[in-house]
Amino acid sequence: MLEPVRIQTEDFSQDEEVTALLGSSKRMGGIGTFLGCARDFSEGREVSEISFDAYGSMALSEMNILRNEAIAKFGLLDARIVHRIGTVKGGDNIVFIAAGAEHRAPALDACRWMIDELKERVPIWKKEITPQGDSWVVPHP
Amino acid sequence: MIKVLFFGPVAERIGSSTLQIEYRPGLRLQDLRDDLSKQYPQAFDIVCFMAVNGAHSRDLSQELADNSEVAFMAKFSGG
Questions:
Q1: CB–CB of B7 and A125 under 8 A?
Q2: Which of B73, B75, B66 is nearest to B20 (CA)?
Q3: How much is the pTM?
Q4: B8 closest CB neighbour out of A118, A119, A125
Q5: pLDDT beyond 80 at B69
Q6: Region B38-45: what's the mean pLDDT?
Q7: Of the CATH numbers 3.90.1170.40, 1.10.3720.10, 3.40.50.20, 2.120.10.30, which one belongs to the domain with range A5-136?
Q8: Mean per-residue pLDDT of chain A
Q9: CA dihedral B21, B22, B26, B31 (to 10 degrees)
Q10: Does the distance separating the beta carbons of B78 and A58 come in below 8 Å?
Q11: Could you report the predicted ipTM of this complex, rounded to two decimals?
C-alpha cells in the first residue's frame, strides 16, 4: 500500500490514489481531487521542461502536517497528497491531492485548502526550461 | 558546526547548496542571517523563509545549537 503522503520522481496514478482513499472508509460520500500538471507555455514562452528542487525531508514533513490539519479542520475521513520532483515535460502530472469526506462540501473545500496551503508552506521550487533559457518560477496567487 | 542549506533560486545565486559555518555559543538565527547576507546579498534579496532542523522558523532571536541544520529559502513555487 502506498503511503498517503509522498514525494517521488516517478509518475502517479489518480485511479490508484482514489482507490486507496476509498479503501480507507465506507462512510465516504464525496471525494474532491486536484491534479496539477505541467504547462508547455508560460509567460509568453514555450516551456520544454520543468525541473523541481525541494528540501525533501522538510517538504514531506510539511505535507504530512498539512494532511493532518486538513483532516482535523474539515472532518475528513482521509486525504492523500503526492508531489513529483525531478524533471517533467508539458502535460505531465505534477501534484495530486484527494480529500474524502461524508459529504461533498468538506471534500471540495479541503481539497482547495490543501493545494493553496501547499503552495504557501511546502519547500519545493520549480524552474522552467525554455529555448530562451531557464528561469525559476515566481509564485502565482 | 552549523549546516546551512540552500535550494532552487537561492542555491543558484550562492553557487552552492550547502555551507558549513563554525558554531559559537549564543549564535542566533539573526546573526547567521546577517553574516551570510553580507557575503551573499543577491541571494538574500530573495530569502523569504527560514527553517531550523526542518521546521519553519520566524523567530530571528532563536539561539542555534551546535550541529543545527538551517535553511534560508526563497518563496515556494511547488504545486
A1: yes
A2: B66
A3: 0.95
A4: A125
A5: yes
A6: 97
A7: 3.90.1170.40
A8: 96
A9: -40
A10: no
A11: 0.95
